[in-house]
Amino acid sequence: MLSVNDRTKRASGMGAEMHAMLRRLFPICRSITGPGTRETLAILSEDIDLDVVEVASGETVFGWTVPQEWHPRRADITGPDGRIHASFADNNLHLVNGSTAIDAKMSLEELLPHIYSLPEQPDLIPYVTSYYHPHWGFCMSEREKQALTPGTYEVRIDATHSDGALVYGEAVLAGRSDQEILISTYICHPSMANDNLSGVVVAAALYRLLAARDDLFYTYRFLFTPETIGSLCWLKNNETTSVPRIRSGLVLSCLGDDGPFNYKRSRRGDAQIDRVASRLLGDDDTLHDFFPNSGSDERQFCSPGFDLPVGMLSRTYPGQWPYYHTSGDTVERLGPDILGCSLERVEILISGLEAAAAETYVRTEPRGEPMLSKYDLYHRQNLRRNTEADTERDYRGQMMWLLNLADGDHSLQDIAERSGGDLESLREIAGILEKVGLITPLVQSTPITGGPQTDNDRK
Ligand code: ZN
Fold first, then answer.
1. Which of 118, 161, 178, 284 could cysteine-pair with 68, CB 3.0–4.6 Å?
2. What is the pTM of this model?
3. Are 169 and 45 in contact (CB under 8 A)?
4. Helix-strand-coil percent breakdown of the chain, rounded to 5?
């Protein structure tokens, strides 16, 4: 086990590696389909034993339809004075992500409804998408838009939509148990660093850290998907296999700005990951109850048909950072130290989950309360030496809480918080209950599946 100082030092070294990876991924024009996501997954595959899964265009997924592949090649506008505006080659945010093609001459009046800008942030190019409704458009700064003069404009977008596949990446690190922790992040955003290359590089670095460990209880499943449609495809493909094995999960989004951490609880609100996050996040950080109206793929994992124990971790909450979804979200705004600190925080949460598992128990017969007198535990006066009568009652009360929450999901720490008891007493009681065979430790009672660290068989 690394000391806190060693962990901080190592995380900062990894910050530089993450930043280098982020710089490499930054120029790629990603979308929910097309060559950008494939190229991104190919780069991630250099470090990660990644399975690239394809889902054919046109497939239906819980009422959604997988869109065609989008292949953007060139886009720009030539003004009446011959000047080039909104060139895709200069910045891929200039083209509406998912835009259809056009090659036409038109007046400024005809062009303007197809130009998106941010009047409140006049120097920034907005990030605009149109995935599911055929539409063409450009994005530019409000200043550039205001400077367009009347006249004839030549508008060219060379992009095609064609049948192919949506792709996502999946990697598994096998632990002792086949119970899984899901780490999910999205790879569909074009050239923006915080949203969401920060999440991508932190997830990739976490994979490298965990791959080097041989003491993991849980199996870790990493997903790199196009947001929404990609996570829905994964949920559909794994509905009866991995999905029921997920014990905790984290969606990683916007981990590169210098704001405090924000954790959004799972829809359940009291899942193990929610309890661990509430214990391990700092005083400056914010915990939110689940809400479905913004965020990322936790909205799919926490839809009512799945209701998975998956929370979302970001620095500044997505949408509240001033450069969110704009050309201001640059590599230069994200320091390696911030990425290192985000990685460290995610690793602390993972260690919290592993530590909780190590002090979690399972009832050998969970149906009903056990017949305590059979084990000499009901009227036993000497459960604890030198106790007063009321302490005795309290001690038995804690035992009843432990017997009730020995469900493989609540750690002794959780039980202490829930019952108002103290951890040391609960450890002592757990020892007594284990000795008489009423409970077994989760870690011991789980069959060891072993296997290689990178286990592609378990999918
Ligand atoms: Zn976004």
1. 161
2. 0.93
3. yes
4. 35, 20, 40
Q: What is the pLDDT of residues 259-286, one digit of tens each?
A: 999 999 999 999 999 999 999 998 999 9
H helix intervals, 104-246: 108-111, 142-146, 199-211, 229-237
Residue labelled with tokens 């609880």: 265
Give dist(CA 23, CA 38) in Å, integer: 17
Q: In 10 A of CB 244, how many CB atoms?
A: 12
Distance from residue 170's CA to the centre of ligand 1 (Å): 21
How confident is residue 306, by pLDDT bands cut at 50, 70 and 90? Answer: very high
Exposed, middle or buried, 103 (CB in 10 Å: 0-12/13-18/19+)? exposed
Angle (nearest 5°) at CA 263 between 351 and 36: 90
β-pairing, 310-314 vs 246-252, is parallel
Distance from residue 403's CA to the centre of ligand 1 (Å): 44
Ligand 1: distance of its center to the CA of 221 in Å? 22
Mean pLDDT, rounded, for 49-63: 98
Any idea what DSSP says for residue 45? Answer: H
Q: Cβ neighbours of residue 380 under 8 Å, at least 6 residues apart?
A: none
Could you tell me which of 73, 323, 342 has the C-alpha nearest to residue 192?
323
CA distance 247 to 214: 20
Contacts of 89 (CB under 8 A, 6+ apart): 74, 76
How many whole angstroms from 239 Cα to the centroid of ligand 1? 26
Give the pair of three-digit tokens for residue 413.
């720490």
Ligand 1 centre from 77 Cα, in Å?
A: 26
Q: How far is CA 304 from CA 66, 170, 250, 403, in A?
A: 21, 24, 17, 29
pLDDT in tens, 89-143: 999 999 999 999 999 999 999 999 999 999 999 999 999 999 999 999 999 999 9
